[in-house]
Amino acid sequence: MIRTHFDALVIGGGIMGRCALYHLQRLGLSNVGIVERFSWNHNRGSSHSHSRVTRSAYVNADYVRLMQVAHGQEWPRLEADAGEQLIHPTDGCFFGPEGGKFEDYAQAVTGAEIDCEVVDVAEARRRFPMFRFPTAVGAVHDRTAGVIAAAQTMQALARLTQAGGATVMAETKVLAADTTTSPVQVTVQREGEQFCLQADRVIVCSGPWSAELLPLLRPRLQVARQTVGYFVLAGDSAKYEPGKWPVWGNLGAPEG
Length: 256
Prior knowledge:
Blueprint: E1 5-6, E2 8-11, H1 15-26, E3 32-35, E4 51-54, H2 61-82, E5 87-89, E6 92-96, H3 102-109, E7 116-119, H4 121-127, E8 138-142, E9 146-149, H5 150-163, E10 167-169, E11 173-178, E12 184-190, E13 193-199, E14 202-204, H6 210-213, E15 247-250
């Protein structure tokens, strides 16, 4: 028998949805559920596969402050609850040419109470000899960065939330969410059948499908394609392990 009324319902079972569910339970809600339109461990989200990057260097100060909270409180809490290491620290190097996003990164971290340092090209080459920096005007050396064990993190969140009693509805597509009612009426479809879920609170974490559920987002939400490439690096693989090889970002050419 499927539970049909929830104190809170999360739409989207990716990293954002699983984290939302985790925090709902941590804050005291037990009657919670999550709806995922694909299989529970599909590869269509932004956090599938083995690894992702974390850092404090971002394009604006708001993200820098958010990462202080994430690195100082939230990741340690999740690792403690999961009983395993999910972040493998390694320095970060973020660079770019004059007039591009690098200048925004440098400004955002300057004066912030984080372990990031803006250095010139000569110093960047000394610290990160694996890069040539041919067009860069400088680099941000981010000592808070690391490699996230993405698949482990997704599995840990699933394990913790299901152990806490969360209802998981995979391969269940949300057709509509009527936010004008109380509780919110969420119409879903699974195996060709439609039924209605009720929730006192709904959190939408459906990524590029969000505009389908929330029409007010359609003029503001633009889905952009992200191309992911994998490269085999030459030489001793031990040189590329976390802690020896930095996470890095070439912040691109000037816009316009």
